[in-house]
Amino acid sequence: MVYFQRVKKVYENSGLAALSDVDLHIDNGEFVFLVGPSGSGKTTIIKLLTGEIKPTEGEIEVNGFHVSHIRRHKLPKLRRTMGVIFQDFRLIDKKTVYENVAFAMRVIGASGRDIRKRTNYVLDLVGLKGREKRLPQELSGGEQQRVAVARAIVNNPRMIIADEPTGNLDPVRSLELMMLLEKINEMGTTVLVVTHEMELVNAFSKRVVAIDGGRVVSDGMGGYFDYEELE
């Protein structure tokens, strides 16, 4: 669950007010698109969700953690409740597909047996069975993104945050990725997709939260959404 109440964020170095009085509530199991032009505040919201930064004012709760006042030693526990998918994949070049995904479980001290069972399961789930021994550079862009998805879900997080996940993919691969995220959502995981690709957003009947100038300007389900309205 995500809960923002009158959240404001001003960056001290620049004095920039990135967010102003943002209210946002995402229930467990929801699939939500967060959209907006460059500089609208999307990245700031992601950083607040993961505890990378704290709000200047307001209250934030994420998966039972009060992020507004969270202590540094509790950040790893917060982050274990979420998986993050990045536009640039961020795979380890010298590790195989299997090793990239398994590494996320080794970090939290999972047993060898659990790692083998869970890693093989998620690689099959994302359609990478048979690619386990490949290195990232031996994969297509779409396959690399699927490795990133597998790594994000391998520890069974309560929430997935996908930050411009289709930015390096062609339209067909972008659609495939979104359908995969939809499948993961149907299994009970909350999914938040941050994007500016409105054609992709309009292809799915999901909740769309639009942000512009650091404020939520619209929040609704499905239907056609015109990105130019935010310019």
Detailed description of the structure:
The structure is a single chain. This protein is α/β, with parallel strands linked by helices. The protein is built from 7 helices and 10 strands. The chain has helices spanning 42-49, 75-79, 97-107, 112-125, 141-153, 171-186, 198-202; strands at 2-10, 17-26, 31-35, 57-62, 65-66, 82-85, 159-163, 190-195, 207-212, 215-221. The strands form 2 sheets. Strands 6-7-8-3-9-10 form a 6-stranded mixed sheet, sandwiched between helices. α3 (97-107) crosses α4, α3 runs parallel beside α5 and α5 runs parallel beside α6 (171-186). The longest helix is centred in the C-terminal third of the chain and has 16 residues, at 171-186. The mean pLDDT is 93.
Short précis:
The protein is α/β, with parallel strands linked by helices. It is built from seven helices and ten strands. The chain is 31% helix and 26% strand.
Summing up helix and strand content along with how strands pair, one would put the structural category as alpha/beta
Mean model confidence by pLDDT: 93
Count of individual helical segments: 7
The quaternary state of the protein chains shown equals: single chain
Radius of gyration from CA coordinates: 18 Å
Q: List the secondary-structure elements in sequence, H or E.
A: EEEHEEHEHHHEHEHEE
Residue stretches low in confidence (pLDDT < 50, at least 5 long) are none
